[in-house]
Design a protein that fits this description.
- The chain has 179 residues and is mainly alpha-helical.
- It is 69% helix and 0% strand.
- It has ten helices and no strands.
- It has helices spanning 9-14, 21-35, 39-52, 57-69, 73-80, 91-103, 107-120, 125-137, 141-159, 166-174.
- Helix 3 runs antiparallel to helix 4 and helix 7 packs antiparallel against helix 8.
- The protein is elongated.
- The two termini are 22 Å apart.
Length: 179
């Protein structure tokens, strides 16, 4: 389901920077390795930063993102539920929680976090898309199509040049046909 995980630069900048230079160095190296798709080495650098400063938000968020990319969903959730994030109010934070819960096949629970992402940013088409996926998994086709249409509308508003055929998109994503 998760082919590519993006690290939102805006969110990373919002997170506190550790005062420890070594933590900063490990975190930057983690981000560089992450962008190079070198997940295992990036994970080691995040771990090194967190071992020095267990409250290093950037390193914790990057590690949670890496865990998600590696389908280590519970570990990602453990990092994301860490108390250091209690004041983070960003759609990608809620999306990452929702994606991990979705990957655990807890589709109804994932909807709560996709909705939280939309509360923060109503134009966040990724949240609408994954809501559609969750509703489809729950076999609520009407809500799946409704949310997919909303996602399509938001994306078209954002890009102005992408046009999707709704039926083909659902078929491609789910490798199945609608009856």
């Amino acid at each position: 389901m998760i082919n590519e995980i993006d690290v939102d630069k805006e969110l990373i900048e919002l997170l506190d920077v550790s005062q420890n230079e070594q933590v900063q160095s490990f975190t930057l190296e983690c981000l560089r390795l992450f962008k190079d798709n070198n997940f295992s080495n990036a994970l080691m650098k995040c771990d090194e930063a967190i071992n020095i400063d267990p409250t290093a938000k950037k390193a914790l968020f990057l590690r949670a993102t890496l865990y998600t990319a590696l389908n280590m969903n519970q570990r990602s959730l453990d990092d994301l539920y860490n108390g250091v994030f209690k004041e983070v109010h960003h759609p990608d934070y809620f999306m990452l929680i929702g994606l991990n819960i979705f990957s655990q096949k807890k589709y109804s629970n994932s909807l709560e976090y996709f909705d939280k992402a939309l509360e923060v940013n109503p134009k966040y088409h990724k949240a609408l898309y994954y809501k559609s996926e969750a509703y489809y998994a729950l076999k609520d086709i009407k809500k799946a199509i409704y949310n997919l249409k909303l996602a399509q509308k938001k994306l078209i508003q954002k890009t102005k040049h992408i046009f999707w055929d709704l039926r083909v998109f659902i078929i491609l994503i789910n490798n199945t046909t609608l009856q």
